[in-house]
C-alpha cells in the first residue's frame, strides 16, 4: 500500500520507540540486578553495549582471574547496540586521511585491514559462543542514483586503491550484475564490498551479555554511573553510582552516544540521532521484483544518506538521520521518532522500492544516538597513571569497530605491545565540541546544507558535488 497523503502507511499495532524493533518479538528485556553496594575490582567497565561487553569478554578470556565489573544504567544493549541498522561493516570509523596525517599512510592502511578482520572476528565469536544473531556475511552494496552520486562512487573506488583496497575488497558492478543482486529504482551505478555482514543487533548484544556473564563477569544493570574519578595517590580509580562506588585499577568508559550525560564529559562527543523504520513482512512477489536474495547491506552516496537491510523474516529495515541533534546534547531515551521523520524515511524507501511500498506498511519506528567526536574519528585510550580509559566515537560504524576496540582495550590494559596497540586511533586526543548554541547551530546548519545539496544534485544532470555539501563539510570539519 503506497501513501499519497505525505504520511507513511502504518500497520495495525504500529510501534514508535520502545527501544527498537529488534526487541519486538522477545519484548524489552527486564534489567538484571543493580549494584548491591561498594565493590573492588581489577577492571570496571561503564556501559554494557558492544564496546563494554567485548572489552569484558576479551579481558576475561585472556585473564580468567581478573575481577571485572560492568555497570549499565538501563539494561545491556539499551543504547545504539540494540538499535542500529545491523551492519557489521569493515570500514574505518573516521577519516583515513586524518589518521594518516599524524601517523603516516601505512598506519591508516593497517587500521583498515584490522577493520576487515573485525567482521570475521564477530562472526567467529558468535559461532563459538552459540549466539544466533541472524549473521550473514553478504557484503555491502553502495548505489548511486544521480550523476553526482555516480561520480562520488567512481571516486570512492579509485581512491580506495591508494589506501590498500584491492578488487577483492571493493569492485564496481556492471549494470546486469547490479540488477541481478538488487533492483533499486533509479540506480545508475553500484559498487560491492565483501567486508560487511548483516546482523540482528539485539540478538548479538544479548548473546554477548550472556557469554560475558557465563565467564564470571559481574554485570549490574539499572546502575547509572554519575561520576568517574581518576586514581589519586593511593586511592584507586572509581566509578560512582547511587548504590555504591566501584574502585578498580582501571575504569573504562564505554558509553558512546550517552557520554555527554557523564559529569565532565558533556562536550567530548556529540550525541547524533539516527532513526529507522521497518516494514511488515513482505510477500514473495515483492522479493521477486526486488531481488536481494544475497541479503547484502545497502547504502547510497547521498550526503543525507540511507542504510538498509533485508531482515531474516523478510522485512526491509531502513534508516537515516531524521532529527539529527537535540539542543544541549539531550537524548530521548525512549527512542520515539517524529511522524515527519517516519514519513520521510518511508518516502525514501518507496522511491527505491515501489513494490515494497505497494504491499508493505511501517510496523515500527525508533531512534538512537551515536557518538561523534569533533574530528569525526574514533579513539581508544588507556592512561595507566590515572587508571582511566575509554573507546568510542564510532560515527555510526560501531558494530564491528566496537569489537576491534574491545580487543585493543584488552591489550592496553594488560600492557601488551601488539599490532592492535600500534594502530593510529590509540591515544588519539581531539578538541571538544563548541558550547551551545554554537553546537546546535553548527549541526543543524550542516544537515540543512546536506539536504539542500541532495535536492540540488537530484534535480540536475551535473556530476559535480554540490557546493552546499562542500560548505557543510567546511563548517563541521567532517
From TrEMBL:
GO terms for cellular component: cytoplasm. Coiled coil: none annotated. Gene3D superfamilies: D-Amino Acid Oxidase, subunit A, domain 2, FAD/NAD(P)-binding domain. The lineage of its organism: Bacteria, Bacillati, Actinomycetota, Actinomycetes, Streptosporangiales. InterPro entries: FAD-dep_OxRdtase, FAD/NAD-bd_sf. Pfam families: DAO. This is FAD dependent oxidoreductase. Residues 42-412 form the FAD dependent oxidoreductase domain. It comes from the Bacteria.
